[in-house]
Amino acid sequence: MMKRISAGMIAATLSVAAPAFAQAPAKTPTGPFGGDITGIVTLANEYSFRGISQTQRNPAIQGGLTYEVPVFKPISLYAGFWGSNLNFPTDVNESVEIDIVAGAKAKFLNDKLVVDLGYIGYFYPGVSGALRYNYHEVALGASYDFDFMQVGAKVHFSPNYFANSGSAWYKTAFVTVPLPFVSNWHKDISAKLTGSIGHQSIQRNANFGSPDYLDFTAGITVTAFTLDFTAQVIGTSLRTVDCANTNFCKVRPYFSIAKAF
User: Fold this and answer.
1) Structure pTM?
2) Domains, the chain, ranges and CATH?
3) Do 125 and 100 meet the contact criterion of CB atoms below 8 Å apart?
């Protein structure tokens, strides 16, 4: 039983906020009906979700596609999927997580203000349905670009979270600060500082395997010749004893290389 509880806590905890769904720069429409199809491929030193490692702090290969189409100004609709390898510390036969996303965005004030209402489904193919690992969330977020800084916040709600742990809320705030002087060194290089803080609350903590907790990220992303290099410090407020007696929730470094297309 303790193995199953530990799996619940380790597995369910979106990081370095839900997986990084495809977000390529604006470009000529590539999809039907004037929409855009964008993708992302990432190689990281681990898959961290809301501060907790999903791969026992081992490397992760991740990727996804998103299709976004304008409906009428200022509304657009989007749908996509994202996946990553997994490595839970249990004997559960799992190897991959697949997430499905869909929603609507509204952009105002020359696209500086973005409001996003969406759905995310988290699925674990090959895992017995009796474990109740699959779950669903709805999310509402907003962000604003001040040019010198982008700030935002998002709220996620699940009516029945991972491992049948009941209703759950995840609230997060994030900030991005561009470093324009970096582009002076080379036109194909840019950089930005990033940071976030979140709070995860769960109705049935015993099923999930941990108490409610805080998580955070802080670091820098350098884009060089279309590749994104990210270095961050990530972690949670959970003690080792609250993290199945592992180091998967502690403060630690995170590194990734990503290519959006």
Assistant:
1) 0.90
2) 2-260 (2.40.160.40)
3) no
